Amino acid sequence: MSAAIPQEWIDLIDQGHLAQAKEKLLERYREDKKDAQVLFLLGLIHFKQDDYDQAIEYLTKSVELDDSNDRAYEILGQAYGFKAERAGIVKSAMLLSKMKKAFQSALELNDQALGALEGLFMFHLFAPGVAGGDQQKAMEYLDRIKQVNPARGHLAQALLYGKQKQPEKAEQEFDQAVAKGGDDADVLMKAGRFYMNYQKFDKAQQALERYVALKPEDPSGRDALGDLMLHQQKPQEALDYFNRAVELNASFYPAIFNKGRALKQLGRKEEARQAFQQVIQMDKKNPMAAKAKQELQSL
C-alpha cells in the first residue's frame, strides 16, 4: 500500500507553491510510479501551470490505477477542454469527445461532481450543434448545478446571460453568486474578474480582497488585485501587489509577467525586460512565455 500524502504537500498546492509541491511529489513518484494519488496531484499541478499535455499524461495514469477518484476525472476533463481550445478543428473534436467522457465518468462516481456538471454545461452552451452542443442539455445541467450549489448556479446563469449579450443581467447573477458564496474563493475570483472586465472596479476590489482574506498565502489574489490596478491605470499600486505576490511565491510566473507589464508602464524598461526574460527562462513551453517574448519585442 502506498504511503499517505502529507497534508502539508496538499497545502502547498492549495497555496500556489506548485514548484515546491512538485519537487516533493516527484521524489515520491521516483520511488513508486504506480501511486495513483501522487499521479493525480502531479497532474493537478501541471494543470494549474497550464501544462495540459503533461497533466493529461499523469491524470490518465492515475485513473487507470484508481478509477474511483471523481476529482481526477474532473481535472482530466478540464485539461482536455483547455487543450481543445488551442487545437485545430479535427483534433479539437477528438479532445472534446474525451473531455465529455471524462466528465461523464466523474458523474457516474459522484452525481454531484460540480466541476463535471459545470464542464458539461459550458460544453453544451458554447459548442455548435455539429460538434455535439445542445442548448436543452445545457439548461438541464444548469438546473443540476443550481441544486448542488446555488452560488455556482448563479455563476453558470451569468455565463448564459453573457453569451446572450446581456451584461446587466450577468452582473446581477455575479452579485447573487458573491452574496451566497462569499466563502467560496473560486466564486470570488471569477466575480472579481468579471467586474474588472466590465469596469465595475469597486465591486472587483471588494470581491478580490475577500479572496485574499480567505487565502492569504495564495499569490493569485494579489496578482488579480494588481491586474485591477493596471485596469485603472495605476501601475505603481499594481507593482506593489505583484511584488507582494512574488514574495509569497517566487515561482508564480503570472505575477512576474504582470510585474513586467507594470514596470513597462512606469518606464522602467530594463527591469521590465528582466521580468519578461525570467518568465521565459522558467518555462519556455508555457503560453505565458510566448506573451513575454512579445512584450520583449515591444520594449
TrEMBL record:
UniProt cross-references to InterPro entries, sorted A to Z: Sel1-like, TPR-like_helical_dom_sf, TPR_rpt, Ycf3/AcsC/BcsC/TPR_MFPF
TPR repeat copies, ranges: 36-69, 185-218, 219-252, 253-286
Pfam families, A to Z: TPR_1, TPR_19
SMART domains given in the database record: SEL1 (SM00671), TPR (SM00028)
Bilayer-spanning residue ranges: none
Keywords from the named record: Repeat, TPR repeat
Signal peptide interval: none
PANTHER family registered for this protein in UniProt: CELLULOSE SYNTHASE OPERON PROTEIN C, TPR REPEAT-CONTAINING PROTEIN MJ0263
The protein, known as: DUF3856 domain-containing protein
Organism: Caldithrix abyssi
